[in-house]
Amino acid sequence: MPIITPAYPCMNSGYNVSTSTLRVMREQFQFGNKICEEIELNKSQWKDLFEPCMFFKSYKNYLQVDIVAADVDGLHA
């Protein structure tokens, strides 16, 4: 399954999927599917599908990357 990055240039990042990230993706697909099924049954609304994710409560571990450069040219390296 191609996984297209949202930033330019768009690329397929599917090769980066590991066993653990595949598990997380499957859980999220199942969660979204459950809400879509409830929408079809008039038990939920579309706004429920697009609720913000509570990222820092949902995940115990995460990685933050801060990139700093002296000037804009340093960001193109």
TrEMBL record:
Predominant cellular place of this UniProt entry's protein: nucleus
Membrane spanning residue stretches: none
Cellular component, GO, one term: nucleus
Gene Ontology BP terms: mRNA processing
GO molecular function: ATP binding; poly(A) RNA polymerase activity
Poly(A) polymerase central domain span: 1-52
Keywords, ordered alphabetically: ATP-binding, mRNA processing, Nucleotide-binding, Nucleus, Transferase
Entry's EC annotation: 2.7.7.19
Compartments, record wording: Nucleus
Pfam families, per database record: PAP_central (PF04928)
Enzyme class of the recorded protein, top EC level: transferase
PANTHER family for the chain: POLY A POLYMERASE, POLYNUCLEOTIDE ADENYLYLTRANSFERASE
Family recorded in the similarity comment: Belongs to the poly(A) polymerase family.
Protein name: polynucleotide adenylyltransferase
